[in-house]
């Protein structure tokens, strides 16, 4: 016979809801892992007291009772699996798997039996229905009545909220059957009653979800959040996980409490309770218990008087009461040296923490994704810019989470982390050897050591090692697919002048397709030179005096080498920052010295500028005279040419009509043209007399020719 039996898609009944998961039976005991929350129920073989097989709504079910009174129900089995389970129970647990059918007579009177944490309503020897007393939220009594109220189940479409039992009166003296019934229920029910004093109180803690300032009162079995508007009572049994996460600014800490079922406020459900602490805030705490009680209850994990950082005190108390380990970030370190990545999820910005067994995003809305529920991850291009990328996670249930606007520098670190955790990366496929190495039935928070304690003990050492690691090889590995330069070469843009190169060469209508890119290329050529149109920069005189430097720039040029020698290896940006700090801290007397030098430089510049402007004016005057002379000569040549064309008009009349249309001029046009040219000649001669010498005989001869 096999040492283990495994069943998929088994449903566990918890507080009226059916949670699917995986069930494994082994020699050591029974293990059920919830697919939704990752919570693991582990029942030791030595604790099993009874096993019952029965027909239920989802086929057949298995009910297990333990020696300490706990009841576990698992549904979804097939009828054919009874023999296999029965033999396994006999061989490994030494138990008979009994078959018991429910009574379906429909009677509404019978006998109530209390067994452990179960209320059973029986007719004869057959049970009609059973109520786990942990589902009961309130129990009230009347004259001959007992009313049970139940916790609301958000996952179920229809929830049972109330059951009333009529208890007939008895003649026994001193025993009230109604009160006896109510006491049996209340002794096992999950009723939160703030009886007695709180163990300790933390005042005015900043809470991000639900938002506000709350006093946290710590009771032995539950947590009480007392705010100005709302109060919440959180049983420790609903706490799934505890997280302690350092903020990116290294000055604050997040303490996250994962809850199932969540706390409710109207229609809002809070699956996570997130507290924000300042690292500098300290507290001295005294527990409201004597030292013997503290030692007996907490076994050295807490002491009556404690002091330290506020976040350490809260996390230490919660860890002792909830009896769960605190999850902290692992060895991941981002580009900036922080243990988290700044990104956006949905509409808000937050921080993504890669953990040893999953990812957690804080804070709005908080998301926790375990590695064992991830189907694959994907690194995608940012939608608006190539300076960032998106990190997508898809779970086995088909839910997709997209964390966007992650800085490109974080890509190498995050890719290495995902690769080291052997997660399936989309488009690369699940390669051999990439199988996840962790146990499928292990708790997502289980570790061989307490990471929180290790962090507290060796925090300084780990920081130093991480700093060395980040300085050795940060950002060496980058993703070539995000290189904007390469993408421009691979794919032609719509208005690229080389767009035709990217089109397929085997198309039939090549002539028609070739014309379109040419038009687009022309548009680009017309548009691009606009940026280079200003002629003032092109025509700048290199001989013009340079503008004087400010006092700060004069000081910086003189002090640059000294700053470099004092800080070897300093970058240009850091040098500028350092220089700005030194200048700011400089005394007024020293600054006045450089102000005087700047004033002298300004005077020298003004003097040189005056000399330069006088010389440039003379040059421009000479240039204007030469331009006028040249213009006048061109007009003279043009006027004589027009006159010559007018005299040759009769001879050209015999030429073809085409020649006539080009050279023919009417009498009015010729006369007006000649008169206007004569007037212009007169004006030019007057200008010549004033500004330039008379034309030479050679010029006149050439004009007559």
From TrEMBL:
Role played: Component of the FACT complex, a general chromatin factor that acts to reorganize nucleosomes. The FACT complex is involved in multiple processes that require DNA as a template such as mRNA elongation, DNA replication and DNA repair. During transcription elongation the FACT complex acts as a histone chaperone that both destabilizes and restores nucleosomal structure.
Compositional bias segments (type: Acidic residues): 474-496
Main location: nucleus
GO cellular component: FACT complex; nucleolus
Keyword DNA-binding in annotation: yes
Family the UniProt entry places it in: Belongs to the SSRP1 family.
GO terms under biological process: DNA repair; DNA replication; regulation of chromatin organization
Basic residues composition bias: residue spans: 517-531, 624-633
Keywords tagged on the record: Chromosome, DNA damage, DNA repair, DNA replication, DNA-binding, Nucleus, Transcription, Transcription regulation
Keyword Transcription applies: yes
Record localization: Nucleus, Nucleolus; Nucleus; Chromosome
Residue ranges with Low complexity bias: 497-507, 647-663, 690-705
SMART domains: HMG, Rtt106
Name of the featured protein: FACT complex subunit SSRP1
InterPro entries: HMG_box_dom (IPR009071), HMG_box_dom_sf (IPR036910), PH-like_dom_sf (IPR011993), RTT106/SPT16-like_middle_dom (IPR013719), RTT106/SSRP1_HistChap/FACT (IPR050454), SSRP1-like_PH1 (IPR048993), SSRP1/POB3 (IPR000969), SSRP1/POB3_N (IPR035417)
Residue ranges of DNA binding: 545-613
Biased composition (Basic and acidic residues): 532-544, 634-645
Highest taxon above the source species: Eukaryota
Ranges where the record places region Disordered: 459-551, 609-705
Gene: Ssrp1
Alphabetized Pfam families for the sequence: HMG_box (PF00505), PH1_SSRP1-like (PF21103), POB3_N (PF17292), Rttp106-like_middle (PF08512), SSrecog (PF03531), SSRP1_C (PF21092)
Annotated ranges, domain HMG box: 545-613
GO molecular function, one term: DNA binding
